[in-house]
Structures are given as C-alpha cells and as structure tokens.
Amino acid sequence: MDVLEQSLQKAFINKEIEGSHYDPKLIINRPEEKEFLLNVLQEEIDTCENFFFSVAFITQDGLNALKSHLSDLADRGISGRLLTSTYLGFNHPDMFASLLAIPNLEVRISAKTGFHSKGYLFSQKEYHSFIIGSSNLTMSALKLNYEWNIRLTSYEQGEVIHQIQHHLSSEWKHAEALNQEWVNEYRRTYKPFANNQKLANAVTVDQTLPQYILPNKMQKIALNNLKELRETGAQKGLVISATGTGKTYLAAFDVLQVKPERMLFIVHREQILNKAKESFEKILGEPSDQFGILSGSQKDTDAKYLFATIQTISKPAYQELFEQDYFDYILIDEVHKAGAQSYLKTLDYFTPKFLLGMTATPERTDNFNIFELFDYNIAYEIRLQEALEEDLLCPFHYFGVTDFEKEDMVISETTDLKYLTMDDRVKFLIEKINYYGCSGNYPKGLVFCSRKEEAQELSARFKQHKIPSTYLTGEHSIEERETQIERLETGEINYIFTVDIFNEGIDIPKINQVVMLRNTQSSIIFVQQLGRGLRKDKSKEFVTIIDFIGNYKNNYMIPMALSGDITRNKDNLRKDTFDTNYISGLSTINFEQVAKERIFKSIDAVALDSMRELKQIYSSLKNRLNRIPYLTDFIKQQVLDPMLIANKFDSYYTFLAKIKDNEGILSVEENKILMFLSREVLPGIRQHEIILLSKLLKETRGLTFEEIRETFAKSQLAHDDKTIQSVIQTLSLKFYTGGQKKTYSGAEIISVDNPQLIQFSSVFQQALHNDYFRKLLEDLLTASFYKSEKFATDQPLTRYAKYRRRDALRMLNWYEQMVDQNIGGYTYKDGKFIIFITLQKGDDFKGAQMAYEDELVDKTTMRWFTKSPRTLSSPEVKALQDAENWTIHLFVKKSDDEGKEFYYLGEATPIQSTVKQLSKPTQEGKVQNVVEMDLKLTNAVDTKLFKYLT
User: Fold this and answer.
1) pLDDT at residue number 189
2) Residues 639, 631 contacting (CB under 8 angstroms)
3) Spatial distance between the Cα atoms of 408 and 86, rounded to a whole number of angstroms
C-alpha cells in the first residue's frame, strides 16, 4: 500500500493502521504540552520548496515568528507568496511595511469583499501539505488561542490540491501587488474599524477620577509572604524578581501595609531616584512634601519618605544627621551590589525594624553572601520564565542572527575595531535590524557593543546612514544620560549605543528594540540587557531582541540565559537551541541556521566542568542554603547537573575533599563504591538499582529473588527474570568487563555467594558503619531517583534519551558488557540487534576504514551500512533479512564532539528491497564489500531533533 494511501486509511478508515508524516492531523494549541500551530508552520517552512499563504488577518508579532525561517529560505533561494486583505481594517499599515522588508516574499492584496481565509500551502519535495482552519497569522492564534486547524497532504495529481492551486492562482491574478506606494496610500486612509467599534461600545471612563494602581498577582503573593515573615519576628527579607515585574511598586505596597514612621529607600544611581519617588507617591497617596531626595544635588533630610543614593547616605557626614534607629523601614534596590563597602558601612550604622532587599540577580562572583546579609529570608522569588508565564512582562521576539562574514573574516572576540565598524558590516547590521524590525516600525533601541570605541564609531556610522543615534558610556554625566534617554523616548533619536551602563537600574519603558553586538560574557548580563526592553508600555505590543552571533567561544551561554537552565548539561543546552518551546506566552525565540550551528559548535568545544566554575556554583548554593549542599540540592535548585561532578571526579566526596569542605572522612574502598554509583546509577537511566538499594538499606538480612520481584512490581517496574538478573549483575559488578571491571574492582555492592539470598557485600556492609558514607549514599540515591523521573519505567529504553554503549546493553539485559571497541557500530544476540551510528564522522573518525555514508534520510528512514568486509551471506545480514525474529534498536549521535552518548530513536525494521551489497574503497586504497540498507523507524523522529541531527 502506498504510504499516503496508508495514511488516509489510518485517518479515515482504521486508526490502528501504522501511520507516517503524511497523516492528516488536527492541530490545536496546547500551551501546557508545548504544542503550537506555530511549530508546525515553522517546520513546514524549513523543509518546503515554495509556499503560498492566504490569510486575512496578520499582525507584526505573528509575522515576526516566521522571519528567521524565511531568512533561511532566502539563503537557499526559496521564495513564497502571501495573499491578504484590508478587511475590517484589521491589518495595520506597519504590518504591511514589515512585509515589504522580506525579500523572498511576494505579497498581493485581495479586493474580494469579506476576505476571511486562513490557509497555508507548502510544496515539499515529494508532496504538498496544506493547513486550513481558524488561525490567522497572529501570535495569539499561533500560540495561545483555542483554534482548530487541520493539516492534510496530497500528491501533485490529487484533486483537492488541484482545486486549491487553481483557486489561489485565480485569486492571485485579480489581486493588487504590495509596494511602497500602496502602503503610503493605505496609511493615509487607514481607519482601524474594529478598534473604533470596540471603543464605541466601551464604557466611558471619567478621566478626572483618580487612577488607582492595584497589586498584580506576583505582588500580592510577595506582600503576603513579607507580612508572614515579619509575623515570625524576622527583621530582614529578600525579594528576587525579574527586571520589569514591578519591584518598586511592590516595595511601595509593602510600605503601605507596614505604615512606618520613617522610610529610607537606597539606590546606586541618582537617575533612579525621581522615578522611584514618583512610584511611591502614587501608591502611598500622601502629600508630596512627605517625599524627599538625598543626593549630591538635593538634601531633603526631613522627609518622611527619603530616597537616597548610596554614594551620599554612606558618607559619615550624612549618616550623623540621623539617629541609628531613625528609619524603621529601609529598602535597598539592586541589593546584589550590597557587598560593596559603602553598603556594608551604611547597614552597619542603621538599625531599622525591617530591612528589605530587592534584586533580579542575587548571584555574585566575589563570594559575598547576599543571602546571609538578609538572614537567608527569601520572601519571594520570580525569574524571567515565571514572569512571562504570569504575563508580567512585555512579550519579546528574540532573533539569534548570523553576524557579518566576508571572505575568511568572521566576527569574533579578537576582531579588530576597524572590521567591527567597516562600512560593509554597518550596511549588513542596518539591513538585518530593519528586516526584523520592531513594534510600530519606529525603533527606540539600545545597542550593546563590546567596547566604547565601537559604540562611538557605530553611532557615527548609523548617523551617516540617516539613522539618528548617539552613544553613552560611563564617562558621560548623569545629566547627559538623562537628556539622551529623553531624546530616545520622544523619538528624536532611534538608537543609543552603549557598553554596559544600561545593564541594570535604568528604566526606559518605551524601548521596543534591543540589539546585541557583543560576545555574551555571562548569562546574568545577557538577561539584564535583554530585560531593558521587557517593561510593559502602551507604546509597544512587543520588544524585538536582535542578537548578532559571531564565532564566539561563549555562544553556549545564549541558550543557558534564554531557557534559565543553568545546570550546565550540554544536552540540555543543545535541546534549548533546537527546541525553543520553553519560552512562555506570546514570546518566541528564533535562530537563523548558521547562528544555531555556531552555538552548537561552542557547546561542543566548551568545558563546562572546570574546577573554577564548579567551585563558584557550589559556593553560590552554599551561600543560599547556609550549609554544605549535596547532590540532591543541586537538582532541587536546578543549578548544576550532578553528572558533571561525577564525570569530573571519582565522587562528590572527592570534590568536597578537594575544596576542603568534606564533613567526614571516607576510606579508599568507601569512595570507590561512591565512584561506581556516581557513574553507573546516578544517571538514573533505570530505577531498578535505586529501588533495590533503598530496599536493602531497610532489609539488612537481605532479599530473596522473589522478594526482589515483588519490590519491583510494587514500584510498577519490569520484574521478569532477565531484568532482575541484569540488576544483580550490575550491582555485583559481574556485568562489567575491560577497563570498567578494573576501575570498579573492590566496589561490589551486593554479594551473589548465596543465590537464594541477595545481600550487601561485606565491603559495603562495613562501609555502612561510617555515618558520613551513609549520608552521601542516601543523598546519591535520592538524586538518582530525581534524575530517573525523565526516563520511562514501562519499557527498558526511552526515546530521545541518551545512552552510552554499555548503558544500552545493560538496559536490554545483556549478561555482560562488551568493550566499546568490540561493539563498533553494532552488536547482536538473543533476538536483539543494537545499532550505533555517528552521522558526521569527520576525517579522523575512530575506526573508520572507509567512508561510510550513514544518513538520516527523513524522519522515518535511516540509510545504514554494515561493517566491512561483509556480504549478503554474512551472519548479521542474514539476521536482518530475517527481521521478524530480531528487534532492532537504533542509537544515533551527530558527531563524536557530543561525547560517548547516543540518542535512542527507537525500534526499526529493514526495508528488504533496499538491501544490497556494494564494493567501497578503504582508506588504504583497497576495495572491500559492505552491505547497504534502509531502516524504517517504527516512530518518526521528532522534527526538531531530526533537524538538529541532519
């Protein structure tokens, strides 16, 4: 049966029939499952040979979500068409202007009355796909709204696709081409009918009435937490809140509920004072003479609510104007700076009834403990992802853009200033910035540069291109900064070029574009700079973030910052680059293909487990917890994948001993046991070992085989004889051979001397007498269980999880490990055929005798070659030709740069018609036989993983 015919049978006749990527599919936005129409559209665009959209309503944010994908198509010489309308005045002139900036998109405007279509047609290599339903090209329709759409496929000869193509062709002929003249005329006559109608139907609001500000959801929770904290007798509290979530209003609301006699608000920059004072005046509602400023230029020392710069209030001459208990409520903004002597001196002097610290980034690199300063009282914490989920921030569209290249010159950390500011690069930057645009198409942007000279020169170059710009550095006065910010807000200039003075503490709500022209030095700074545009403002619907990605070593920090995943797990970073569904609400993250490859290259090359970095992460967590952290703490706080420590050191104990923070002493034998568990059990790929060890710790007499079976059954785990024997083989070390056997020798955990009763080995029993060993052991088992939660428990292998060769053998109940070199590309026995494929082998691929051309042809087909020399008569080939008696498991990795682990793609079967014997040249110039075949995967590979692998 033809594959498309089979898909139609499955969709409309019998759902039990095996499916394929041709299957008709109902597409509904499911935010909780991270499934969106947007993903489907992006995937179709990425693989198409041309496209045709017929969509009534389009918004700038909906268009933005596709721009990087359209840019990649343009690089491949692929273009498409869009048919839209002016129906109901929904489509804004700015949106039409944005369409003109897309070079590979031809646009026409239908004059048809009541044009209301929503259809997306794609011509793929061997078929057509089309999506028809309720979704317009708006961000809400693509990600949030409850919409119904159906995706169908057809061959060229199909009747329905013929009807669609004929109809679109006819409509296209009668539609008007979009050009600048058309946009100008439309803008002149534009009347947003729908919006006017809404306003006409709305209740009229008396503008003379006071406008009350109420706490948002986050602020209500934080206020309640602060209240409860004080009721316990606490005198200090720390609020960790993402930039733009309303920390200043939160502080004002808390002052309102506390009603202090005197309040002091401390900031680190003078230009913040007036805005903070204005916010408090709105919330507290007291006469303006009750609010005052203490700074270098103003001295309102008698004010009930005093707003001071740290530079002024830290001076003894000003501190002496106040008794130590004069202020009963003190607030510190951007409190992560409080490790400076000026802050410490001020806090040592004053004795308020309550001290509140506020920051978006409590982590410091100088080992000063902010948490200790506030008695470890974290009243509330909300980071970027949560703030987006709660709709506290302006939606953003991030674009990771490929930076300028010319011949052999690629932008990097060492690029000379003359190349950073050369005219060709400036033109390139302007073209890309205009392409990705901004809300409203009139940019009010911050541009972060790598150095002062670059900021100054690029500002001048932009002005030469008729783009009003300026630059600001730390050398400019407060007055000059405020003047230029005002010019930006009023639209007198489009851009302020800077290095780092806007990283924090500056509030410019009207910013609708942030451009990054520098290497990412830290994920904290990245989020701070991105956050400059996230404050909500009625002048914008979203903010555009354009990140020019050069050949930087630190590119791996980009997915780390955007996802908030700081576990330093490389597989997580790769996934957060090729699958960006983790971002919430109406925001999107997009990477151009070349930029994406640069990030992957950085992830492959970087060492994320340096002693310096591990110590820094450890110290930061220790500061937060006020105690020595253990493996489970790293998982719960999501600050480090414990496997980095396990792979870097023999055990966590070895790490603690190295930094002289161990709370006890272990013998060599005890530490070897922990080393084995750290490397083999901690990854969590199978719960059985964790469950059995936990049970044996309680049942000191040991367990019979049947009791083990019962234990596994109660945990709803596989409990057949082979699985139980595999677990015993693992914990008794009988499974291990070669280097592993030698390394783990003496670390046997269970004894098999008495097969009727499984007990701890004598070495392990002796180790349990050491309380510190037991503490480390129980922590490791708990951490292992947490990690095991991402693996399936109803089957031995989890699709898309990663496994080493020995892991795969163990999960499939191999009695004994095989050395990796002996396995090579595959091994087979007892009805199980395990294949390991490295797709990008490189010139120095280990063990490659010839140029194997293994290829993931499509999402369900792998082209694969046997070892050489092999013929159609070789045992493994005969086994594969008798595939009904063999289960084939397919493991794949992109290249050896990823390490020793492979993605498990699932089960596969050979397509017998493709099995053929070939003769191929070896590296030595000889010719050897090899067998080629296509393997059909039972389940199609996830689209995003497929794109990453290929």
Assistant:
1) 94
2) no
3) 47
By the 8 A CB rule, do 55 and 147 touch?
A: no
- Residue 425 has phi, psi (to 5 degrees) of -70, -40
Do the beta carbons of residue 557 and residue 526 sit within 8 Å? yes
Which pLDDT score is estimated for 212? Answer: 66
**Interatomic CA distance for residues 690 and 731, integer angstroms:** 10
Per-position DSSP letters for 312-341, written without gaps between them: HHTSHHHHTTS-TTS-SEEEESSGGGTTSH
Residues 6+ positions from 146 with CB-CB distance below 8 Å: 28, 29
Provide the residue range defining the domain that includes 148: 3-194
Segments of the chain scoring below 70 in pLDDT: 1, 193-212, 364-366, 505, 843-851
DSSP 8-state class, residue 128: E
Predicted pLDDT at 851: 66
Kindly give, in sequence order, each residue whose CB lies less than 8 Å from that of residue 87, ignoring residues fewer than 6 positions away: 56, 57, 114, 115, 116
Last residue within a domain, chosen from 573, 605, 637: 605
Decide if 658 contacts 623 (C-beta within 8 A): no
Total residue length of the chain = 950
* Bond into 468 cis (ω within 30): no
d(CA 352, CA 363): 25
Residue 497 is part of a domain; what is its CATH number? Answer: 3.40.50.300
Other Cβ atoms closer than 10 A to 701: 7
pLDDT of 195: 52
CA 375 to CA 237: how far, in whole Å?
A: 8
* CA distance readout (Å), 221 to 214, 226, 334, 694, 764: 13, 9, 20, 38, 48
Q: How would you write 152-205 as a 3-class SS string?
A: EEECCCCHHHHHHHHHHHHHHHHCEECCHHHHHHHHHHCCCHHHHHHHHHCCCC
Cα–Cα distances (Å) from 524 to 388, 449, 521, 570, in that order, read: 17, 16, 9, 18
In a shared domain, residues 117 and 253 = no
Question: pLDDT tens digits, residue range 269-322?
Answer: 887 888 899 999 999 999 999 999 999 888 999 999 999 999 999 999 999 999
How far, in Å, CA of 106 to CA of 117, rounded? 18
Q: Are 148 and 29 in contact (CB under 8 A)?
A: no
Q: Could you tell me which of 702, 682, 705, 706 has the C-alpha nearest to residue 760? A: 702
Q: Give the number of other CB atoms < 10 A from CB of residue 647.
A: 14
The pTM of this model reads 0.89
Q: Is residue 199 part of a domain?
A: no
* Contact between 897 and 835 (Cβ < 8 Å): no
Neighbours of 549 (CB within 10 A): 25
- Provide the β-strand partners of residue 410: 405
Our count of domains for the chain comes to: 5
Question: CATH number for the domain including 124?
Answer: 3.30.870.10
> Which residue is it, tokens 């803008």?
187
Does 512 map to a domain?
yes
Q: Tell me if 590 sits within 8 A of 68, measured CB to CB.
A: yes
* SS3 call for 533: helix
CB 688 within 8 A of CB 727: yes
**Nearest in space to 260 (alpha carbons), one of 324, 214, 310, 304:** 304
- The Cβ-side half-sphere exposure at 343, using a 13 Å CA radius, reads 20
SS3 of 191-258: the string is CCHHHHHHHHHCCCCCCCCCCCCCCCHHHHHHHHHHHHHHHCCCCEEEEEECCCCCHHHHHHHHHHHH
As given in the structure block, the two tokens for residue 618 are: 């450890």
Look at residue 522 in the predicted model and tell me its pLDDT.
86
Two structure tokens written together for 358: 């506020």
* pLDDT the model gives residue 197: 41
Whether residue 146 sits in one domain with residue 9: yes
Taking alpha carbons only, the member of 140, 112, 128, 123 closest to residue 56 is 112
**3-class state of residue 529 by DSSP:** helix
